[in-house]
Write a sequence for this structure.
């Protein structure tokens, strides 16, 4: 029986490209539907965390776009 070739491929970039739009859409939907306003404890902390998550998501999206554009060239 012939051995299968060993593939040395990292799927991390593909995973990020697939997950980032989903995360950002869920986050924006939560903001639009005021889901986070229903929580009472630590509103400032949650707001700070929400902004941090949003900034991180935007960073990942931009990074993925830059990586994608650099690979296309």
């Amino acid at each position: 029986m012939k051995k299968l070739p060993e593939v040395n491929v990292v799927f991390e970039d593909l995973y990020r490209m697939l997950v980032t739009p989903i995360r950002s859409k869920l986050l924006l939907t939560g903001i639009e539907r005021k889901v986070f306003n229903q929580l009472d404890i630590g509103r400032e902390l949650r707001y700070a965390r929400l902004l941090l998550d949003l900034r991180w998501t935007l960073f990942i999206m931009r990074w993925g776009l830059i990586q994608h554009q650099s690979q296309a060239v």
